[in-house]
Write a structure and sequence with these properties.
The chain has one domain: PPM-type phosphatase domain (Phosphatase 2c, domain 1, 4-Layer Sandwich), CATH 3.60.40.10. The chain is 33% helix and 29% strand. It has eleven helices and eleven strands. Strand 4 and strand 5 form a beta hairpin.
Length: 298
């Protein structure tokens, strides 16, 4: 694993101004090799838990669907299931290389099917249709893997350019891709909040979108629910990310701006800002810089 730059990461979830309940959940976690001591004659405060190097960092946003039963339960269950799944993949992070990366990505594709099964197992009675979006970012520096279903989003902010790495799984986006409506019409379409793909809900199978890019020092990542992206446009998001502020302050600024714009939904935000120090594969980074427009998955 290449040496990672310094990282400033923060997240927060806010109920917004119109909802009676917050159905969003988020998670930020580091994955370590860990040794838990069972018995020893060394004082426990010195070695109760021993940690190896950080294997990777996990960020998850899940937006429970209010139109389905128990949206908050669905998003919370999904976030916990994502964390468990990634933890069970520890062996992959120890041996990940270019020769087995395709197998690793296929393993990631299976993750949301496992999360969906966790939702079905929690549903009581079993015909209750809990549903949620899931956008999961996992960084094994300098590689970023994004696993996604729904209309929460992951953005990359690099060199003052904001790039959406995920695709909205909405009917409005499908109409836009089919050139049946314009981008301006899609932004206000009554179909912009209607999902054709999510975790749980009425669909028996979830279609998992997986993408990978190579990160560089000074990159920033933004994960958010549609309570943010539905209130603020790309220009407003870029202005907040451009500021030389801590990630925590940037998160607070974005949530405040979304509430000032109406706060019509729950708002969840994660910002991860990488510093300048650290080494990366320069050739890979140049290749990504040359094709930022192609970072969306096909």
């Amino acid at each position: 694993m290449d040496k990672q730059p310094t990282l400033d990461v923060a997240g927060r979830s806010d109920i917004g101004r119109r909802r009676a309940e917050n159905q969003d959940h988020f998670l930020i976690a580091d994955l370590h090799r860990q040794l838990e001591v069972v018995q020893t004659d060394i004082p426990l405060e010195k070695c109760n838990e021993l940690y190896g190097n950080c294997l990777g960092r996990l960020m998850v946003i899940a937006d429970g669907m209010g139109g389905h039963a128990d949206g908050a339960l669905a998003s919370g269950t999904a976030v916990r299931a994502c964390a468990r799944y990634v933890l069970d993949m520890t062996n992959w992070f120890l041996k990940l290389s270019s020769s087995n990366e395709d197998d690793f990505k296929r393993e990631l594709e299976d993750s949301l099917a496992v999360v969906q099964q966790s939702l079905y197992d929690r549903a009581v009675p079993h015909d209750r249709q809990m549903g949620t979006t899931v956008t999961m970012a996992y960084v094994v520096w300098p590689r970023l893997y994004v696993v996604h279903a729904g209309d929460s989003r992951c953005y990359l902010f690099r060199d003052n350019q904001l790039v959406q790495l995920t695709t909205d799984h909405t009917l409005a986006q499908k109409l836009l891709e089919d050139r049946a409506i314009t981008p301006e019409e899609a932004a206000t379409s009554r179909w912009r909040h209607v999902l054709w793909n999510c975790v749980g809900g009425s669909r028996e199978q979830v279609e998992t979108e997986v993408s990978k890019i190579v990160l560089a020092p000074r990159d920033k990542l933004l994960l958010c629910s549609d309570g943010l992206s539905g209130m603020l446009d790309d220009k407003q998001l870029s202005e907040a990310l451009r500021e030389e502020a801590s990630s925590g302050k940037t998160v607070d600024r974005l949530i405040e701006a979304a509430n000032q714009a109406g706060g019509t939904d729950n708002i969840s935000v994660i910002v991860a800002a990488y510093g300048e120090e650290g080494a990366e594969d320069a050739e890979d980074v140049r290749a990504v810089d040359a094709s930022l427009a192609d970072t969306r998955p096909e």
